[in-house]
Structures are given as structure tokens and as C-alpha cells.
């Protein structure tokens, strides 16, 4: 009887052991499976993090590029101030636009509405005080009106003589100065409403005179007019004066001429 009892007890213990082993196997298998999932999840997270880092780096690069563009834009905005800090611009109301659009320092501009080459000669003392390296002359528009040939002192030849006198007078005070003469610009057809003399035919004659004067005096002629040919979008409503973009074209063209001459 006792022996039978012991056998049953052994069978029960054996069954318990077998059940425990089975449960343990399932448990560890689950752990392994879960661990694999965890590992896979971790790899996925790492991959996602790598993607995020890539995006972050891309954004960082774009921001740096944007900052570089901003720096370039700022540089372009101030470049004319820097480039022309030792330059004096003489002219009329068109030249005054350099101040209005804040493209150069007001100190560097000597210009008044209605001025012509005769008026410029009276401003040589002021030029001398500034003592620039470069003088830029932008005359011709008002000269077309002034030198109308109605008397012997207001002929095209007189304009030529006065322009030469202006250049020579500047050089006598500032022997090392470089002089650049800007071509008078064409006008729109409605400019004649301002003055009957303001036609492209008349301006063409004065433009050629200035070109000849430059060749004779060793000044540099800067052909801005050809750069704005057929650009009606650059003109103000009066067909004479200009919008902002014209001044960029003018100053860039002048810059090219200065760099070529160096």
C-alpha cells in the first residue's frame, strides 16, 4: 500500500516537473520573440532617427544657404556705397535719383534739378573739397534745352567748348582724378510735352558731342543709353526720369567701365 502511494507521488511530481519544463520553454520562447521584436523596433527607431537627422541636416544646410543669400543681398545693397565712396557724381535731377533711392551717400552727389554743364563749372570748388578719386559727369538732357542755337553763346559748339572746359577745370584742381562721362539717355515720345527740344534726335547729337569730347580729353565715355534701349518699363510717367532699376543698370555699367580701366 505504501509502495503504491509512493509511485503515485512520484508520478505527480514527474507531471509537475514536465508541466514546469513546458511552461518554462514557452516563457523563454516568448521572451526571445519579444526581444527580437524589441530589437527590430529599436532598429526601426534608429533608422527613423537617422531619417530625422538627415532632415535636420538638410534644414540646417538650407538655413545656412538662406543666411548666405541674405548676406549677399545685404552686400549688394551696400556695395554701391562702398564702391563709390571715393566718387563724386555731378548732374541734374536724374543724378539726384541716386540720393532719392539711397544708392550712394548723399555726400557723393552734387546735382540739382535743371543743371547743365555751365552750372557744373561753378561747383568745382566743392568737388575739390571732397577730393574724390573719380568724378562722374551726367549732363546733356538740360543742355539740349539750354544750347538751342538761338544765339551764338548757346550753340552745339558752345556746349562742346563748355564740356571740355569743365573737364579741364576739374583736372587742373585734381590732377590725378579719373573722369567718366555718362551718355545722355533717350526719352519717351511724351517728353516733348515738357520741352519741344526734348527729342531723341537732339539728344543723339549731344551724345555724339560728349563722346567726341571724351576722346579729345582722355575722359572715359560710358554708354548707359544702349543698356536701356527699348526698356520703357524703366521710365517714369514724364518719359524723362527713371525708376529704381535704371540706377542699378547705370551703376553696374559704370562699375564695369571702372574695372576695365584699372
UniProtKB/TrEMBL annotation:
InterPro entries: Iah1-like, SGNH_hydro, SGNH_hydro_sf. Residues 89-246 form the SGNH hydrolase-type esterase domain. Pfam families: Lipase_GDSL_2. It comes from the Bacteria. Gene3D superfamilies: SGNH hydrolase. This is SGNH hydrolase-type esterase domain-containing protein.
Amino acid at each position: 500500500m505504501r509502495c503504491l502511494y509512493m509511485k503515485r507521488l512520484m508520478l505527480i511530481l514527474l507531471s509537475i516537473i514536465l508541466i514546469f519544463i513546458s511552461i518554462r520553454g514557452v516563457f523563454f520562447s516568448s521572451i526571445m520573440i519579444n526581444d527580437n521584436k524589441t530589437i527590430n523596433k529599436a532598429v526601426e527607431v534608429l533608422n527613423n532617427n537617422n531619417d530625422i537627422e538627415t532632415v535636420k541636416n538638410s534644414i540646417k544646410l538650407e538655413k545656412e544657404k538662406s543666411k548666405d543669400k541674405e548676406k549677399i543681398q545685404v552686400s549688394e545693397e551696400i556695395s554701391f556705397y562702398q564702391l563709390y565712396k571715393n566718387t563724386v557724381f555731378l548732374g541734374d535731377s536724374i543724378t539726384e535719383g541716386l540720393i532719392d533711392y539711397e544708392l550712394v551717400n548723399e555726400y557723393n552727389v552734387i546735382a540739382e534739378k535743371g543743371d547743365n554743364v555751365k552750372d557744373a563749372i561753378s561747383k568745382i570748388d566743392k568737388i575739390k573739397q571732397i577730393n574724390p578719386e573719380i568724378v562722374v559727369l551726367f549732363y546733356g538732357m538740360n543742355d539740349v534745352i539750354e544750347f538751342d542755337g538761338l544765339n551764338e553763346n548757346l550753340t552745339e559748339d558752345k556746349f562742346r567748348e563748355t564740356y571740355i572746359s569743365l573737364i579741364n577745370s576739374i583736372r587742373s584742381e585734381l590732377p590725378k582724378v579719373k573722369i567718366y562721362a555718362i551718355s545722355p539717355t533717350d526719352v519717351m515720345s511724351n517728353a516733348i510735352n515738357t520741352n519741344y527740344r526734348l527729342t531723341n534726335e537732339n539728344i543723339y547729337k549731344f551724345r555724339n558731342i560728349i563722346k567726341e569730347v571724351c576722346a579729345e580729353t582722355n575722359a572715359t565715355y560710358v554708354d548707359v543709353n544702349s543698356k536701356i534701349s527699348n526698356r520703357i518699363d524703366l521710365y517714369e510717367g514724364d518719359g524723362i526720369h527713371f525708376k529704381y532699376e535704371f540706377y542699378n543698370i547705370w551703376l553696374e555699367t559704370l562699375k564695369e567701365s571702372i574695372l576695365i580701366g584699372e
